């Protein structure tokens, strides 16, 4: 396009190009800047994890029998999980607006001196200990002769910077907690976590042939808020177990100890002629120790939300987690507080058939 105009001095017509406005360039520049900032922000992780409801698994499907077929069940026994995800600024904002999501400092989930692989190894070892203990408890409840033993809790590794690192060493074997003898890891961890954050407890350890007492301050768990820990990876020292039948649990590469209660119920359901579920959709969570005691877990709110979304009708939760669980439960789900596997079995025995 050109513009014609009249020159009064020469009476000639002169053509001159029209100047393009500058504002479109400014808009384009701002647009490109916004895209660049968005891409940059999306790829920068904040020092937080989003803890959100995870998938549910019917744990009766995980039980593997060497011989014979599992007894059929009309209902479901669900274990509950949480999902942990590092977040960028956009995901942080979305998480802050979602009541089903908790934002937890990354340092509490995975300290700087712990790699993803190390954390994964910790969770898988905890799961293996939990599975073995669950089988032991379930077989005992069904009248089988089953034994599991160890020689204490071995300190496989220590977190850097925790108070316990000043008095414990890798390779130490903890044989008592506040005078209570412990022989396997699940029992020892349960005994430790029965105390409160800020408590100082006495651990009796075996080191280089000597027996020593050391005092350890319990700190907040790096992964689960309001739960105490010493700050070491525990494993059973010289574990030994004898089961009268060939049975295993395929945990699908899921980590952590919190499925202990549901694994126990699943093994009993698979081996028993009685259908524990009676046609109901039952979910639950909680650690298990060799005497059948159910212990506290982390991520209880997310797990209850997941159970509700999956249509569970009853949810077993440890007594110490009940108050937090009650803050997110709706009217369609009944929370059942349990201190032991016997509490869960007593509740199931009173259920009518669906």
Could you describe the 3D structure shown?
The chain has 354 residues and is an alpha+beta fold. Among the domains are: 2-42, no CATH class; 147-242, Pdz3 Domain. The protein contains nine helices and 24 strands. Strands 10, 11, 12, 13, 14 and 17 form a six-stranded antiparallel β-sheet that branches. Strands 4-6-20-23-24 form a five-stranded mixed β-sheet, sandwiched between helices. It has a three-stranded antiparallel β-sheet with strand order 7-3-8. Helix 4 packs across helix 6 (260-271). The longest helix has 26 residues, at 116-141.
How are the SSEs placed, and which strands pair?
Blueprint: E1 2-7, E2 12-17, H1 23-42, E3 48-53, E4 57-58, E5 63-65, E6 76-79, E7 82-86, H2 89-97, E8 102-105, H3 106-109, H4 116-141, E9 147-149, E10 153-158, E11 173-177, E12 180-181, H5 185-192, E13 200-207, E14 210-217, E15 219-220, E16 228-229, E17 232-236, E18 240-242, E19 247-249, H6 260-271, E20 281-284, E21 287-288, E22 294-295, H7 300-309, E23 314-318, H8 322-326, E24 334-338, H9 341-350
Parallel strand pairs: 6-20, 20-23, 23-24
Antiparallel strand pairs: 1-2, 3-7, 3-8, 4-6, 5-19, 9-18, 10-11, 10-17, 11-12, 11-13, 13-14, 15-16, 21-22
Helix pairs in contact: 4-6
Radius of gyration: 29 Å
At the first level of CATH, what is the class of the domain at 147-242?
A: Mainly Beta
From the coordinates shown, what is the CATH architecture of the domain at 147-242?
A: Roll
- How many helical stretches? 9
Number of strands: 24
Would you tell me which CATH topology of the domain at 147-242 applies?
Pdz3 Domain
Low-confidence segments: 1-10
Shape: globular
Measured by DSSP, the beta-strand proportion falls in: 25-35%
How far the N terminus sits from the C terminus, by CA atoms, comes to 81 Å
Major sheet summary line: 6 strands, antiparallel
Average pLDDT across residues?
Answer: 85
